[in-house]
């Protein structure tokens, strides 16, 4: 075993151990380490005395400050609700016209609505509400179910094809798949539907198809989409004559719709958002719709 | 590898790979209607390949008994190469998932390429693949040099190294197929866990059996750390993975724990995986290669002792700081925070011990990029542990938790500490292991150093900024008492930071590639003239008799 020797750089002795050339100094633990250790320990022990900490058999030490995380959460949630009630009460109590005439309340609607919309609705309807494939543009497009604030609020509350007992049902039937129409008729009515929003589709060559398509439409589709294809709020069938499409207005998308049917799902928000927030969102959407006109 | 085994040992090795083949077959048959079957086939192919190799070389001449007078370094050499392979794979996947966060569409619409599946491939790839192989490879080396005893037998070191890598491959391929227990850093399913347990027990036995035959009167600090790493990881692994498979023919299992107990067990595991895998193990590495390279004695033996026991004792209780402000009872949170604060003392004592060791060698740190890697690693270790204790304080945690700050913290440790100490140690180790006079290129080490440092800094600063921004955005209220920012707003704000992070990761990956090239070229360079037992090492004590 090697002997202790003095290290020239530090002036300390080595321990005398050596491992493949590695030696160790016998330097005492620097005082600062003890000071550090003691102060950290004092801090930590004090903390455990103040806060809920050491466990016993059936219970734990509650801490001198009587802190309780759960109670704090409940309290701050209650405080938040109380603070917001200055305007949520007004939203719940006043009618739509009064609220929309109140600039300061509408200011809150716009501010809070923007956040609520981004948090709950934007994933489907897009950040600005302008829609995504499969999810309607609810700001600019004519609505399927009606666009006065009360109707929008009802749509948000119960949803469409949702799990809510009172849900709105909107079903586009699968005319091709369920063999309600022969394939050739599907193609004809699709061509006809195309002409509703884009008259340029009509040419001399497909005049006959379009004519027959119109008949097929009158027989099969008008009941829901209306005689002229402008949609009906009773059935929630959309307007087919405008430039707004949920699933796409090109031929293959329309054909897919008519062949396989569609059943978009708009979730119900009752129970997930408070009545005040649902109403606020309806106001927010209605407000954006007015602004977009 | 096989030529070094005696006939009897070759027979044993054949029994082992044969057994593996049978297990693989059983898994393939039992799990034929399940993804377990795919893993069965993989295990079987590995077993068969091993078997074929054994048969081909079975009749090779008996090895020279003289070899038992030297250290057993072949497993270390293989481990070094595996470390580098995993480094490049793991970091590449890391870059990939970082890019996915900035550009989420890059999944090619394939399930295996989704973020949720690739992320654990990255974390397991770098922690277990890269870090674990580095630990195994260096621990064999350090263990033999500091005990002056050869590893206890010829098969078990290979069994551990290769068995461990089989575990890593099963884990990573399982994630891509969607197999996971959903426990962070403990994702592999029950059969992989059982396999790792076996490998790990053998690993520990290698350590014990070598230490029992040591020729040095004392056990060097590095070995305490390596042993703590092996022992505690075994305990954590076994307890956190207690689970019941739904059937022996299925990969799916259910944890024995549920609810908040499950969360607490998981983070007791997760935190101590950081402690004993990513800290203790690499401290062991540091305690050997840093003083060796610096040519300086350890600053203080006494400091080594108190920081070792401080770290080992204190870490155990700190896991609950991962669950502040959750369903976990508050008293457990308080204790987690209290222990985390005191933990800073032994952490800094270790870092200080290492930095003071460099006194008298700072000129070497300046001139030698290899030593500079190690010195920088220690500095990052100190910074990260400070940050860790800070983040464990509840008030800080309420801002930092669930944000990218955590990711920044982890990578300050993973890139700055773990990866740097590994690369520094490998650079120091490679020439001796392959008996080359020096590394192929000192300049490339320098290039790697600056790539690694700038990559780490870009990464960490990006995540700090993004984390704090996120945390603040989530808690900003408007005058009317509603949140000011939506979650999506915070994502939009993160986008530039995510791009910066990917750039930082890219630099770090490039560094790892440069290192692999440099080490590969070193291995291919001509052998050193002096061919005594690994350069400047003290020789293994020749008193190694069979049956000792």
From TrEMBL, chain A:
In which pathway is this protein known to take part? Answer: Energy metabolism; oxidative phosphorylation
Could you say which cofactors this protein requires? heme c
**Transmembrane portions of the chain:** 32-50
Keywords associated with the record: Cell inner membrane, Cell membrane, Electron transport, Heme, Hydrogen ion transport, Ion transport, Iron, Membrane, Metal-binding, Oxidoreductase, Repeat, Respiratory chain, Transmembrane, Transmembrane helix, Transport
Cytochrome c domain residues are 108-197, 208-289
Cofactor-binding details, from the entry? Binds 2 heme C groups per subunit.
What Pfam families does the database record attribute to this sequence? Cytochrom_C, Cytochrome_CBB3, FixP_N
Q: Which SUPFAM superfamilies match?
A: Cytochrome c
Give the quaternary structure.
Component of the cbb3-type cytochrome c oxidase at least composed of FixN, FixO, FixQ and FixP.
- Family per UniProt? Belongs to the CcoP / FixP family.
Instruction: List the protein's name.
Output: Cbb3-type cytochrome c oxidase subunit
Q: Which organism is it from?
A: Devosia rhodophyticola
Gene name of the record: ccoP
Automatic annotation (TrEMBL), chain B:
Keyword terms: Cell membrane, Copper, Electron transport, Heme, Iron, Membrane, Metal-binding, Respiratory chain, Translocase, Transmembrane, Transmembrane helix, Transport
What reaction(s) does this enzyme catalyze? 4 Fe(II)-[cytochrome c] + O2 + 8 H(+)(in) = 4 Fe(III)-[cytochrome c] + 2 H2O + 4 H(+)(out)
Q: Cell membrane among the record's keywords?
A: yes
Cofactors named for this entry: Cu(2+); heme b
Cytochrome oxidase subunit I profile domain sequence ranges? 1-548
CDD domains, alphabetized: cbb3_Oxidase_I
Q: Which domain of life is it from?
A: Bacteria
Does this entry carry the keyword Transmembrane?
A: yes
| Cited Pfam families | COX1
Please state the pathway this protein functions in, per its UniProt record. Energy metabolism; oxidative phosphorylation
Major site of localization recorded for this protein: membrane
Q: Which residues cross the membrane?
A: 12-30, 36-58, 79-103, 123-143, 155-178, 190-212, 224-248, 268-290, 299-318, 338-358, 370-394, 414-432, 444-464, 498-519
Q: Do you know which Gene3D superfamilies this protein is assigned to?
A: Cytochrome c oxidase-like, subunit I domain
PROSITE patterns xref list? COX1, COX1_CUB
Give the family per the record.
Answer: Belongs to the heme-copper respiratory oxidase family.
PANTHER family linked: CYTOCHROME C OXIDASE SUBUNIT 1, CYTOCHROME C OXIDASE SUBUNIT 1 HOMOLOG, BACTEROID
Record protein name field = cytochrome-c oxidase
Q: List the gene name.
A: ccoN
